[in-house]
Design brief:
Protein name: Sulfite exporter TauE/SafE family protein
Number of strands: 0
Order of helices and strands: HHHHHHHHHH
Helix content: over 70%
Number of domains: 1
Organism: Rossellomorea vietnamensis
Distance between the termini: 26 Å
Number of helices: 10
Structural class: mainly alpha
Shape: globular
Length: about 230
């Protein structure tokens, strides 16, 4: 419950972070399949709850490009999930995240383009069905392009509505599901509601600079965690 509360507050106040914070700790409590599916269900609930409130901040054309790019990525990700050694995959992902985050801290910037939008969506799709973390590619991309926090939150949450729903369907179809997944998700809903209210209150108090710092901390945490967890 503590894990879900903190992750819900983070997701609501920033537009990302639920899977980044929740997945590593849920993996300590549940097998990988159950941890990923609980993450997908609760992230979908948060996106549904917020979509009406943040609809004016959504860049619809950008969401469409992310969605189109993610479609092949989702199927690549489930193949990766079933065939490739997870430890090796996590090491590679963690090193890329750490390297790119360091570049962003050193003021490296990316120019946004339709082709890069498609690529970011594709990478997000791969990571969603493989390790349950769609956020890092979008977070790195938005940070590199200097996107404002309102647009980042609105656009990512709108995209998550699609990618979490499709990913959950693919996961259940290919890997199956368990009663524990749905029971644990249902039990967590009151905590998610508290996180939604708290996160909304925090969002208005976070300025762009602090938002950027939080972004870098989360990315470094994700990269370092995946690296340590894969090696040990």
């Amino acid at each position: 419950m503590v894990i879900i509360l903190c992750a819900s507050i983070l997701q609501t106040s920033t537009g990302f972070g639920f899977s980044i914070m929740a997945t590593p700790f849920l993996l300590l409590l549940y097998p990988p399949k159950e941890a990923i599916q609980i993450n997908l269900i609760l992230s979908l609930v948060i996106s549904l709850a917020l979509i009406v409130k943040i609809r004016r901040d959504i860049d619809s054309s950008l969401v469409k490009r992310f969605v189109i790019g993610s479609m092949p990525g989702l199927f690549v990700g489930i193949v990766v999930f079933t065939l490739i050694d997870m430890s090796f995959l996590k090491v590679m992902i963690s090193l890329v995240i750490i390297l790119l985050t360091i570049l962003l801290i050193l003021k490296f910037r990316i120019r946004q383009s339709p082709a890069r939008d498609f690529l970011a969506g594709g990478l997000s799709g791969v990571l969603t069905t493989s390790i349950g973390m769609p956020g890092p590619p979008l977070l790195l991309y938005f940070s590199g392009t200097g996107t404002k926090k309102e647009k980042l939150r609105g656009t990512t949450l709108a995209f998550y509505l699609f990618i979490y729903l499709v990913s959950l369907g693919i996961q259940v179809e290919v890997a199956g599901t368990t009663l524990t997944v749905w029971k644990s998700s249902l039990q967590a809903l009151p905590v998610v509601a508290v996180g939604l209210i708290t996160g909304q209150a925090l969002f208005s108090k976070i300025n762009q600079k602090l938002f950027q710092i939080v972004t870098y901390v989360l990315l470094l945490f994700t990269g370092i965690y995946l690296l340590i967890e894969s090696i040990i």
